[in-house]
Amino acid sequence: MERNLISPIMMPLSKPALATVAIFTFLAAWNDYIGPLLYLRSDYNFTVAIGLATFRSVMRTEWNLLVATSTAMILPVIVLFFLAQRYFVEGIVLSGLKG
To answer: Among 6, 38, 59, 91, which residue has the least CB neighbours within 10 Å?
Structure first.
């Protein structure tokens, strides 16, 4: 019976911590370069980070394509941050209150 009483109290208070873990996990997977480079063999399956690195060449770099791809790569991260910003602020406010 205690478990049913604790769960409704505990879950709303842990939303900021869960949102933080979700953001950091997403960022780690989104920006991973070495892991997919080791186990992916086909260019078709490469991640966005590896695709961004392939825009740089030895002789000539197309800077306009590199900047456009970098912008496209950072947009989902910015959108995710603005969607989860409320939980970060809520976590800061709740941690600063004395009860």
So the answer is: 59
pLDDT at 98 over 70: no
Residue written as token pair 């604790």:
6
Higher pLDDT, 48 or 10: 48
> 64, 37, 40: which is closest to 50 by C-alpha?
37
Residues in the chain: 99
Greatest Cα pair distance, the chain, in angstroms, is 69
Give me the residue spans of the domains in the chain. 16-96
Q: Is the pLDDT at 21 greater than 60, yes or no?
A: yes
pTM listed for this prediction: 0.65
Instruction: Compute the distance between CA of residue 15 and CA of residue 23 in angstroms, rounded to an integer.
Output: 12
Sign of the four-CA dihedral 9, 12, 15, 18: positive
DSSP 44: G
What SS3 class is residue 18? helix
Q: Average the pLDDT over 80-91 and give the result.
A: 76
